[in-house]
Amino acid sequence: MAALRRKFGEDYQVVNTSRGATFSSAPVKKKRQRFVEKNGRCNVQHGNLGGETSRYLSDLFTTLVDLKWRWNLLIFILTYTIAWLVMASMWWIIAFIRGDLNHGHDATYTPCVANVYNFPSAFLFFIETEATIGYGYRYITEKCPEGIILFLFQSLLGSIVDAFLIGCMFIKMSQPKKRAETLMFSQDAVISQRDGKLCLMFRVGNLRNSHMVSAQIRCKLIKSRQTPEGEFLPLDQCELDVGFGTGADQLFLVSPLTICHEINPKSPFFDLSQRSLMNEQFEIVVILEGIVETTGMTCQARTSYTEDEVLWGHRFLPVMSLEEGFFRVDYSQFHSTFEVPTPPYSVKECEEKSSLTSPTATPHHEHAFTMDCLEAGDEGAGPGSCKLPSKLQKMNSSGREELQRKVLRLSSQQSEKASSTGDLPLKLQRLGSSPVQGDGESRFHLKALKVGFQPMALSTGDLHHRSLPQTPAVTYPHTPLHTPMSSTGGRPEDNLPPKLRRMNADR
């Protein structure tokens, strides 16, 4: 058990290798009649043929080959015995008609067959002729044309009988059915998970070193069902896919292989669970076909599994081991299984549960971005700042540039004409002296533009020719302290920066 845990991992622990441990309290079902026996013999008998029995005589050779060995031997012996007696009787009749029996010991008389004077001597002559023994004591003379004709007929008939019976015995002895005796199937089939999928599995093996060429395996499900029209089908045959589409049904049978049937929506076991398996009645017929490498004849091996021979939650024990220079197969563990954790539900139930839980399994995340978040997207300095993806940051930067251009166009429309560098303080004075209801709009333009007014050079000519009106100082929360709008009265030159005042004095 420890070796199995090391080999298969902790998820595949051996629970119990006995079949009676699972559902031990369940009543034991009585074994029902099988359609195909475990040895492959079909349990079907044909009766009430009526006049159709003549069809067997039309194919006499196949009929003799299909017969059991005891009937073949009886027919073989009787055929030769009757043929010998009939031919010996014909030789005795010729001797009796010619009168050779009365002159058997007369040296001057020339009979049809020398030294044939009773039935035993005629029988010995036939055996010597048929078996080409040729003792030389009994022989045909040239004065018996009917004996020559009978000799030719005897040779032809003997050759036909020999070819028929000896060929029949040879074919029966070399039948590939005997090759099928060395092809093994596991006594039970198992249902467990493989690669995350629930599968029905069984094992096949080849006891001989000679290979099975072009080995192919097929599976049939024998189960009674009723059609939607009300027709009852007592032995309906359904195909089980064991890899027909992927080529997995073509076997390279040099070592025991585990054949796998995936239980999916196309499988007849789609709604089969561990509990419903106890109430089901079906039979799985397995057919293995291949060409015998030594004789070139097609061989077919068969077996079947009933519902009580299908073990839920089991897996086959490994039989392969690596030795020095070769792989060893331990056939003592060929039929052994062990239990593994397997869900007791059917594939249909599992899919229905997953479909019900899938809509709530992946919640949808919705992100709302505010204007302040977009404005602070480039900074991202504080912990509470909004961090946007690069694509959204590009969209944000392009959007802000477009917003700045729109605000500039709006501000240019209010001034009725483009302002020069000298008109900028005047424009700002007009904005500062605007009514109260316009303060919010102007502040919004200034905030969106994020313009920090720096000291700029103004021409003194514009300052002399343009007199700024005396307006009360208006304080803007976003306007720097050095803006020209923060005048307190007096001459306009007094509100200029020191640099501009020196330039005006020099001029």
Strand content: 15-25%
Outline: elongated
| Ends apart, CA distance between termini | 108 Å
H and E order: HHHHHHEEEEEEEEEEEEEEHHHHHHH
Please mark out the parts with pLDDT under 50 across 5 or more consecutive residues, or reply none: 4-8, 10-26, 361-387, 412-489
Estimated radius of gyration? 54 Å
Query: How many β strands by DSSP?
Result: 14
Main β-sheet description = 5 strands, mixed
* DSSP helical segment count: 13
Which oligomeric form is depicted?
A: single chain
Instruction: Tell me the helix content.
Output: 25-40%
**What is the averaged pLDDT score?**
74
Class based on secondary structure composition and strand pairing: alpha+beta
Main traits of this protein?
single chain, 507 residues, alpha+beta, five-stranded mixed beta sheet, five-stranded antiparallel beta sheet, 13 helices, 34% helix, 17% strand, elongated
What do you see in this structure?
The protein has helices spanning 2-8, 54-58, 60-66, 69-98, 119-130, 145-173, 347-361, 371-375, 390-414, 424-432, 439-449, 460-465, 498-506; strands at 183-185, 189-194, 197-206, 212-226, 232-240, 250-251, 257-262, 283-292, 298-306, 310-312, 314-316, 320-322, 327-329, 337-339. With 507 residues, it is an alpha+beta fold. Strands 1, 2, 3, 7 and 10 form a five-stranded mixed β-sheet that branches. β8 and β9 (298-306) form a beta hairpin. The model is unreliable at 4-8, 10-26, 361-387 and 412-489 (pLDDT under 50).
How would you summarize this macromolecular structure in one to three sentences?
The chain is an alpha+beta fold.
